[in-house]
Design goal:
Its EC number is 2.7.7.60. This protein is α/β, with parallel strands linked by helices. The chain has helices at about 30-40, 60-65, 85-90, 110-120, 165-175, 185-195, 215-225, and strands at about 5-10, 25, 30, 50-55, 75-80, 100, 125-135, 140, 145-150, 155-160, 165, 200. Bound molecules: cytidine-5'-triphosphate and the ligand C[C@](O)(CO)[C@H](O)COP(=O)(O)O. The ligand C[C@](O)(CO)[C@H](O)COP(=O)(O)O binds near residues 159 and 160.
């Protein structure tokens, strides 16, 4: 069963505040995107068909150049305004039975996380996501930040990527009429709307998403420990 990986890397990184698209910010001598590609290539039993990297249009040329010769087929295409637009663009170029969608912004995702997701796909689950228990108390608030209720965190998971799909499940999730009201913040959210069952396997704190300046400091410290 071969696998394609879509890496959405077309975000602008507004919350990071580095004044350049986040995937191209340097972390310890390599771009966030280059580290993420390397983390995928480290999964030697993935049966990897190709990696589809979705980037801002002006970065297509430089990224093709940077990733030429990484040791697997890499397709580089332009993304869209929202993350889901970028994944949809990448989806046009996938091959193989399984598709993983993996944020460029999670460069330190450990190999076992990929393996757990793929093992659950191979076991027949159409949609598989890694997740972590929530450690803080969660409260629902109103528009004035007044607490409405405390939510039962025992039944909640913080969801990471890679999110894994049987290819036909991802196509169904991204069918033109699947968006529904509001924007899905992850790919599995679209699959849920399409009526597909979604399984959560264990994630890993190291698979954190670089979103804020604090995350970038953490990532740079992390890179020092791994360099
Ligand atoms: N239009 C978009 C928006 C996001 N992404 C990608 O989706 C992943 C998760 O998105 P996020 O962390 O929100 O990245 P940004 O959109 O860059 O961040 P921000 O919302 O702070 O601008 C990132 O790898 C990002 O590059 C994308 O490919 N296309
Ligand atoms: C896909 C995701 O990483 C799962 O946690 C997350 O939803 C992306 O959110 P963002 O706001 O686009 O970073």
């Amino acid at each position: 069963m071969t696998t394609s990986v879509i890496i959405p890397a077309a975000g602008s990184g507004v919350r990071l505040g580095e004044n350049r698209p986040k995937a191209f910010v340097d972390v310890g001598g390599a771009s966030i995107l280059a580290r993420t590609v390397a983390s995928i290539l480290a999964v030697d039993d993935l049966e990897l068909d190709r990696i589809v990297v979705v980037v801002p249009a002006e970065m297509i040329g430089p990224v093709r150049e940077e990733l030429a010769g990484v040791g697997c087929e890499v397709v580089v295409v332009a993304g869209g305004a929202e993350r889901s637009d970028s994944v949809r663009a990448g989806l046009q170029h996938v091959t193989g039975e399984f598709v993983l969608v993996h944020d460029a912004a999670r460069p330190f995702t450990p190999v076992p996380v990929f393996r757990r997701v793929v093992a659950a796909l191979r076991a027949g689950n159409p949609v598989v996501v890694p997740g972590l228990p929530v450690v803080d108390t969660l409260k629902r608030v109103d528009a004035q930040d007044r607490v409405d209720e405390t939510v039962d965190r025992a039944v909640l998971r913080a969801i990471q990527t890679p999110q894994g799909f049987h290819a036909d499940a991802l196509v169904a999730a991204y069918a033109p009429d699947s968006d529904g009201p509001g924007t899905a913040t992850d790919d599995a959210g679209l699959a849920e709307r399409a009526g597909l069952p979604v399984l959560v396997v264990d994630g890993d704190p190291d698979a954190f998403k670089i979103t804020t300046p604090w995350d970038l400091r953490l990532a740079r410290d992390f890179a020092k420990g791994r360099a």
